[in-house]
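Deliverable D5.2: sample structural annotation.
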Amino acid sequence: MNEILLKRLERRLANLPDEQGYRVLDFVEFLESKYGTGEHRSTMFDKIADGVEDTLRATRVPAAAIRGTMGAVDSASKLMDKLSHAGKAAVEELGKTLNDMTQPAASASRSAATTETEPAPPAPPEGDAAKASDSATEDTAEGPRPSA
């Protein structure tokens, strides 16, 4: 249903007393069962609230009492929604923290594994060839200088 039509229905329904509003709700539920697309998704708490409201209506409880009861149920629903969001945020934060804690350990083990597999640098030459190369050049501040 487009939003313009939805707003128009909302304006019209706001002017009706509760008893006629419930009649309209019954008719809308009938139309939904007959022509609905099946895309309506209700939370578990919405289904419970609808069941409570339907039970109160079936037992002929006055509309004012139903309104008060449903106000309390709505407040509980909002509280449960906030608790749900807080729980999800806590789980996400915990996941990030655990991920951050395990990443340094994983990178350290990766670097340890890389150093074990890298070949060692070549050993310096030994013997007479090393002595000859050391004595052939002498380093100074101006750069290497041949020895005399």
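Annotation notes: The radius of gyration is 39 Å. The mean pLDDT is 76.
The annotation will be released with the project's public dataset once the embargo ends.
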